[in-house]
Task: structure prediction
Amino acid sequence: MNSLRIVADENIPFVEQVFGSLGQVTTLPGRTMTAAQVAEADVLLVRSVTAVNKALLQGSRVKFVGTCTIGTDHLDIAWLQQQGITAASAPGCNANSVVQYALAVMALLRPGWRQMTVGIVGCGNVGDRLRQKLLALGVQVHCYDPWLTPQQVPQLTSLEVVLGCDIVCLHAPLVHTQPHPSWHLLDLPRLQQLGQGTLLMNAGRGAVIDNQALKTVLASRRDLTVALDVWEPEPLLDLELLQQVALATPHIAGYSYDGKVGGTVQIAAALCEHLGLEPVADLKTLLSADASSHQSLAWSGHEGGAGVDAWLNDAILATYDLVGDDSRCRQALLQADGELARARAFDELRKHYPKRREFDSFRLGALPDGLSATEKKSLNQWLATLGMSRQE
Result:
């Protein structure tokens, strides 16, 4: 078994520890992998920045491709199947991470989000997880996903209704083909449909929004607020657009430590199944060994009389330094000298992303003073819905 040659993206956590028992692991920068580098590999492990297709793999020994991500639009699935190459992804591995990002964006940019309407485009693993959390938190939700039915998602409606919501969250995969392409789904006419004061966020795929059209709209619609985690194109995103949006992050909404480790474990399980072996890694064991798995939630504090919603926002933002992500992204990309340096800076932000833990890594101690018994009960319920548990 150790004769297997495994080439992997260097940003996959625990890749040598988890896959080392299955073969010889070589790690490389994912965006710049070449056909020559993977020609002698039996197994290829990637993330979303590597295009896996005929150009990369023709003539290689690769028989298994695993992407430690939810999305698969960077894999030429049809060609891989034609070649008899097994392909596996990690559906749902970082869904909670993206939900954490989305709620943090709302908490930061729309503090009264629980009283607003939220529209979700794309109800796959991420969008559906967000839908369920929002409903449990008492939020009115509308969803658009042409691949699903009202029996699967009761909140399904038209795209026009979703675009009329106070907050619009994009979690759609990138699809170029009929019958339901998502490429430039939000083009100039649809962007112009956004209601007065809308918060638009994209944490799916950059090209679901026509980024040049978005620039045009933002130049005249100062009432709109935009948060982008994904861009068109990456890594050479448009610097003018970067400066127009309220929040800019380098495709890291799903980059929680938990999500990345989860992706590694899921792909390891898929490879073991492909090889007829028992799984070699367990997510709970890998995560629980980390000291950051049992953190006490640090309340930042409000002035007396702050409503219970303000404390909920405080708790969400205490788990995730979204402002720091935005600041590092802007500083690195705006200071980069030339396109090559900018592309490198984008990838370096991802490679050296700070360890971010999801909601269920945080433990609750005493609730803030100044809240009534009813407010404390509501806050306890909301935080439990997010996944936070009581301090033991």
Notes: The two ends are 44 Å apart (CA to CA). Residues 291-320+356-390 form one domain.
